[in-house]
Amino acid sequence: MISPRNDKENSIQIELSKDKIQNKLANDLGQILSLLPGLQIKNYGDVGGLKTVSFRSLGAGHTALVQDYSSVSTTQSGQADLSSFPVDFIERLELVTLSPTRTQIPIHAKLAGVVVNVESVHSYVGTNKRNLILGVQAGSFDQYEGYLMLQKRAKRWAGTLTGKIRSYGGSYPYTYLNGNTSIQDRRKNNSLLEYFGTGSIQFSPNQHHRFQLQISGNEYKKNLAGAVVFYNSNAAQYLNGYGLNGSFNHQFRKNKWNVFSSVNYQKNNLQYLDSTYLNSQGYLDSRYYSGQLDFQSQAAYSITEKLDILIGSSIISESLKGKSLVGNPSRNTSESLVGIEWKAVGKILAQLGAQGIFEKRDTATTKQWNLLPAVSWSFDLGSKNKIGLVYRYTCRQPTFNELYYQQIGNTKLRTEKAHIASLRYELILPFKQGISQTMIQPFYSYVYDKILAIPTKNLFIWSIQNIGKSDAMGIEFTQFIQKKLRNHTLGARINYTFQYTRDISDPKSLTYRNILSYSPLHSGSLELDYSWKKLSFFVLTSYLGERYALNQNIPSNLLAGYLLLDAGASYTQQLKKSELTLRFTINNITNRQYSYINYFVMPGTHFNIRLQYAL
Q: Mapping DSSP to helix (H, G, I), strand (E, B) and coil, where does residue 400 land?
């Protein structure tokens, strides 16, 4: 669905409902986000493989992931690994472009290029009314999962507990072309064992106050298969770790006031182990310990029916420790924001953020201040048409990995900065027992001091560099149609993105005006779904066009595009106050051999089946 968040906000959300998400039997959040326009998912593997999201060719650090009103990222990498976010308990997923007067989106996220907002059964507005959900799932290549939700609601309080465990063998066959030679093999050293758990308590002493305490954690043990070029099938490389997140929120609403405050803590421990590493010890054991603590408070006030204002501030403290690092880096960030919404000629949203960065690099302390403005203006063209303009300036700091990680780190990195502008046209055509919604968004972004990993000495020794300047221009198209015929419901959803991203740093460079690595010109998806009483079906085709593995646009770096075909069905049986649901999906029906990242091969045809009981 494409709709305004509410009557007091003109920021557009592109939303996927709970049923749409659950029917896919997706392994993680990365698979779901790939269905939204403008988002690109870098996928380094199947179940458990690293997945990151970027918006309109911007670095992943420009995209903020918010889950249940808390920003989620890893201090070490500066971004969230989407493979570590199960989708079993998601109620709603939305893509928000600008929302200055919405208190429950953190300030740090509002200053990013775009917000991916996830609301689960633990959120305040969770629509789940079930007391118990129990499910099991099995799939190809020894994939097994089990999950549980327990919930108790009363007049003034609610408690929710969720947990999941999954294991994966990952030994799937693949074929790839190395030069003129076609090689067939089977993925090895690719297993995974992972645990997730979250508990939350909400308490409302009266209609004006609401408190929430939420604690979540996960632990994982992964075998790392690596790229298939020069592939050592006897490799013994492992990635182990665990994360712990805690948040405490308070919301106050009375008359024209809406105040939201929160304290969040994140802790992540990571171990990389290579049992066959060729050094004096005969193995490599790298361990990192990161932590993040942030506090924020936002207050919104409705001055008149046509004018709202918001002010807020936040403080974020991050640190990283590890034996292989030069010193123990730390970063403190102070952020303030003023936002307004004015219904004058159309609707105007504007915000101005002030960001102060205080960072310890090596033995020196650096200071930096940034002013981050954003504005949008939309107005109606009749009762069914709307047009809008959006501009924002955003920046991202180099991550601790980019600054300090072994040979690739570069402590001289500068902040990556970006100007983003887009024009939005919407057309909503309701008809008898149905609706058609269309959104078209031409966009342009200009980035300078862009941060990329490039070969600096030879093909095997890379480092992180500020490459200079790049720009991206393109258009996003989204179409949603739904029609009801008695007990039948038919639906179609089309997403298409054209994006041309260039290196415009140095006219004398060999890569001048070349397309940046892993930036496809064309991407999109087409989904058809049908439901009748207790049955529902879907067919999904997704396409990713050609892209280059390096900034040099030469044939040897060109990666072929691919088209994937998935299908699924579900059946729900009501049992008095409970229900039983059976879901089945087949992915990559045509057995396409493909990879998003060069030589990180993906599985061919595979299936998943799930049985869920809800009370």
A: helix
Is residue 149 a contact partner of residue 133, using CB atoms and an 8 Å limit? Answer: yes
Dump pLDDT digits (tens) for 594-605. 888 888 889 999
Which two three-digit tokens encode residue 173?
């066959």
Distance CA 396, CA 412 (A): 15
For residue 496, give both structure tokens: 């298409």
Q: Specify the residue for token string 């529902």.
A: 536
Contact (Cβ atoms closer than 8 angstroms) between residue 523 and residue 33: no
Per residue in 313-362, pLDDT (tens digit) is: 999 999 888 877 766 788 999 999 999 999 888 899 999 999 999 987 66
CA distance linking residue 91 with residue 72, whole number of Å: 17
pLDDT in tens, 495-535: 999 999 998 988 888 888 999 888 899 999 999 999 998 99
Residue with tokens 């099995």: 138
Around 283, how many Cα atoms within 13 Å sit in the side-chain half-sphere? Answer: 11
**3-class secondary structure, 173:** strand
**Is pLDDT of 408 > 80?**
no
Q: 130 — phi, psi (to 5°)?
A: -80, 150
Q: From 261, 243, 274, select the one nearest 300 (Cα to Cα).
A: 261
Amino acid symbol at 440: I
> Which structure tokens are listed for 14?
């592109």
Q: What is the DSSP string of 72-111?
A: ---TTTSS--GGG---TTEEEEEEES--TT-TTS-HHHHT
Token pair listed for 590: 């045509």
- Considering only residues 399 and 136, tell me which one the structure prediction assigns the higher pLDDT: 136
Distance of alpha carbon 110 from alpha carbon 353, whole angstroms:
9
Tell me the two tokens of residue 530: 């049908």
CA 577 to chain CA centroid, nearest Å = 35
Q: How far apart are the first and last CA of the chain?
A: 28
Query: Are the C-beta atoms of 147 and 162 separated by less than 8 Å?
Result: yes
Per-residue model confidence (pLDDT) at position 326: 65
Tell me, rounded to whole angstroms, the distance of Cα 184 from its chain centroid: 33
Q: Do β-strands 114-120 and 63-67 pair in parallel, antiparallel, or remain unpaired?
A: parallel
User: DSSP for 250-304?
Assistant: EEEEETTEEEEEEEEEEEEEEEEEETT--SSSSSEEEEEEEEEEEEEEEEEEEEE
User: Tokens in use for 346?
Assistant: 């159309």
Structure tokens, 312: 């807020």
Residue for token pair 């790298």: 286
- Neighbouring CB atoms inside 10 A of 541's CB total 16
Q: Is 529 helix (H, G, I), strand (E, B) or coil?
A: strand
